[in-house]
Amino acid sequence: MPHDHSHHEHGHTHTHLSADAGDRRVGAAVAVNLLLTVAQIVGGVVSGSVALIADAVHNLSDAVSLVIAFAARRVSRRPADAAMTFGYARIEVVAALVNYTTLILISLWLGYEAVMRMLDPQPVLGWIVVILAGVALVIDIATAALTWRLSKDSVNIRAAFLHNLADAGSSVAVMIGGTLILLYDWWLVDPIITLGISAYILWHVQSDIAPVLRILMLGAPPDLRQAEIAEAIAAEDGVEEVHHLHLWQIDERRSSVEAHLVLAEGRDFAEVVGRVKAMLRAQFGLAHATLEAETRQSGCAGGCTSAQT
């Protein structure tokens, strides 16, 4: 029986930056975050603020995340080849997972350091904390602005973008802490804010890592329902049954479906399959379809088992 393959990409309505312009934005974001990291680490050591050092480490993670995002962005544009027949776009999803995992580890380390400092409070020079946290806030906002447009089309860049949003929030918290130290000599506020930064990062990650894991686990696209698609296929004239229906995301911009279609005896396989594929594209946006046509008399070409869907 014919085994029909059709591989296409989804269309997009977003307005994209050129590849080179996007790369320049990411490169600029990396540079400013590295400079900020150095300044904050020096300031944190001089002032004795663990919150400022925490913010510096978070900024360093921003720079690293942007480097990873930049490299993945470049690799993802490589064309498909014999080794990677779907292309290299999924490397951006892998990069996003690396960045989110890094954020989790950093937040846990910051939480540990905060607890240790709460048990043994240390004097902090508030004015250095306020000044450097203010500079950090400006740079965080600038970096987020550089990557915001790119983040709309890439889970990879979005992970780096969220690094910067988290940093902006933590910089505000550090500024408030430095101000309280200046006004009231309340040194304990420094580790308390650090603990808050840690929780803030984890809160962001737990909601944003799920789509990344879903793609890597070959999960069905969240906006598509297997039962609904199977029902729509079965409703097509000439289709008597649908089984072995699987949905997955090739990457964040391309989804795929495969299924076995049991057709009525005597039907034109090419005509029915072509019509089903047109329906999948129009109704569900599934332009990447692999459909196996068979009849009850011929049996299941793929060796059907009781685990059919």
Describe the structure.
- The chain has 309 residues and is an alpha+beta fold.
- It is 63% helix and 11% strand.
- Strands 1-4-3-2 form a four-stranded mixed beta sheet.
- α3 packs antiparallel against α6, α4 runs antiparallel to α5 and α5 packs antiparallel against α6.
- The longest helix is centred in the middle third of the chain and has 30 residues, at 155-184.
- The two termini are 20 Å apart.
- Residues 1-15 have low confidence and may be disordered.
Task: Describe the secondary structure blueprint for this structure.
Blueprint lengths: L2 E4 L12 H29 L2 H27 L14 H29 L6 H26 L3 H30 L4 H28 L9 H9 L4 E13 L2 E10 L5 H16 L3 E7 L15
Parallel strand pairs: 3-4
Antiparallel strand pairs: 1-4, 2-3
Helix pairs in contact: 1-2, 1-4, 2-3, 2-4, 2-5, 2-6, 3-5, 3-6, 4-5, 5-6
* CATH top level label of the largest domain: Mainly Alpha
**What is the number of helices?**
8
Task: List low-confidence stretches.
Answer: 1-15
> How helical, in percent, are the residues?
55-70%
Oligomer: single chain
> Which architecture of the largest domain would the CATH scheme give at its second level?
Up-down Bundle
Number of domains: 2
Mind telling me the CATH superfamily name of the largest domain? Cation efflux protein transmembrane domain
What is the distance, rounded to the nearest whole angstrom, between the alpha carbons of the first and last residues?
Answer: 20 Å
Beta content comes to 5-15%
The class by helix and strand makeup works out as alpha+beta
CATH topology tier name of the largest domain: Alpha-lytic protease prodomain-like
Biggest sheet features: 4 strands, mixed
What is the typical, i.e. mean, pLDDT? 78
Strand order of the largest sheet: 1-4-3-2
Order of helices and strands: EHHHHHHHEEHE
Query: What would the principal axes of the Cα set say about the shape?
Result: elongated
Q: Tell me the Rg in angstroms.
A: 26 Å
Number of strands: 4
